[in-house]
Known about the structure:
Helices cover about 85% and strands about 0% of the residues of chain A. Chain A is mainly α. Chain A has one domain (about 5-110): Up-down Bundle (3 helical TM bundles of succinate and fumarate reductases), CATH 1.20.1300.10. Chain B is built from ten helices and seven strands. The termini of chain B are far apart. The interface of A and B includes residues 2, 4, 9 and 14 of A.
Amino acid sequence: MxxxxxxxxxxxxxVTAMFLGVAVxxxxxxxxxxxxxxxxxxEILGRTQGATGWFAFYAAFALAAGLHGAIGLxxxxxxxxxWRGRGFDMAWLGIGVVTALFGIRAAWGLYAS
Amino acid sequence: xxxxxxxxxxxxxxxxxxxxxDAAGGEFREYAVPARENQxxxxxxxxxxxxxxxxxxxxxxxxVGMCGSCAMEVNGRARWTCRTHVKRVxxxxxxxxxxxxxxxxxxxxxxxxxxxxxxxxARAGGxxxxxxxxxxxxxxxxxVVPPESKQRxxxxxxxxxxxxGVCYASCDIVAWNPDxxxxxxxxxxxxxxxxxxxxxxxxxxxxxxxxxxCHSCHSxxxxxxxxxxxxxxxxxxxxxxxxxxxxxxxxxxx
Lengths: 113, 254
Ligand code: HEM
Ligand code: SF4
Ligand code: SF4
Ligand code: FES
């Protein structure tokens, strides 16, 4: 693996970590607001259906979490299992994107249903 | 005959376990040396070599903490043996255990092959590349570097490295990834990144980036904790990461 790819992975992990830090706060505040007076499906859908801003937020949240987690696990696998090289890196990025797609699909469900 | 300084009992002995062997393998052997009120670990090894085992291989030169050649593992920790007093590492009556430096190939007994360590130093761009004097020529003008400037202070903080390899032998990442450049080489690179007279900043930053470089460091600080010169390679590496982060984001490095 080239030094440049390793550096870009590192930068991507830190940038996603920064975003996740803010996103988790937004998420927690939303949860606290949402559960006041009980949680109902209609109430949630009322907030998210057709709300492009919320969809963009949750999609970015899922993408950041997917990439961040996969890169972190990649680093651990490199050290502990010796899984190094371009092939492994591509596989981890694939795992990250697939994980993110699950989250994005869920967000799309809330947006478009 | 050993001369016994006044006030010490001649029969006091210190037990020492010394690793004997070569690249193919080896084992600990036990020795007994006269216990002294003031003796360094290097004194003990020298006593064994001079009086008991003439073929014991080890390395030293200056005996005063300047050359960096005498490092060994003493009771499980890498140390500079010429400046390590026995009483600081072993309680009275406790034995000493001396092994060759970890994370480096053994040549014989306590002497390791330092070539990988210095090769990485070179790979990390450890050579000064004068900006205004290519090919190492003497520049026409002296550079003026204000002592209070931030960069000068960053460079000063890491400049006293004696290349002993104690940090290298104490780093888990070196043990896990044989390609990892290690703390000393990157500490050196950071001093040069901060040297305003140097013209190879970009190449050097590229050389220390990625999984064999600063991005694999976990900031666990064993290097900083054990460096006998009280340098802080861990912070130097953090400085490299910080610089590379912004240079990558702003596209100064692709
Ligand atoms: C939700 C908010 C999150 C934040 C703010 C966050 C933040 C961070 C930060 C700052 C690091 C770097 C630590 C270091 O410098 O060594 C890190 C590493 C890591 N993160 Fe996260 N993280 C979050 C979520 C997650 C999630 C959901 C996973 C899921 C698998 C994850 C997996 C990892 C792993 C495995 C590492 C270790 C990487 C390494 O040692 O190089 N993180 N995280
Ligand atoms: S701080 Fe980094 S270089 Fe120093 S011992 Fe820990 S991992 Fe190794
Ligand atoms: S940084 Fe410290 S421990 Fe490492 S080689 Fe230099 S002097 Fe020795
Ligand atoms: S012999 Fe020179 S530093 Fe120990």
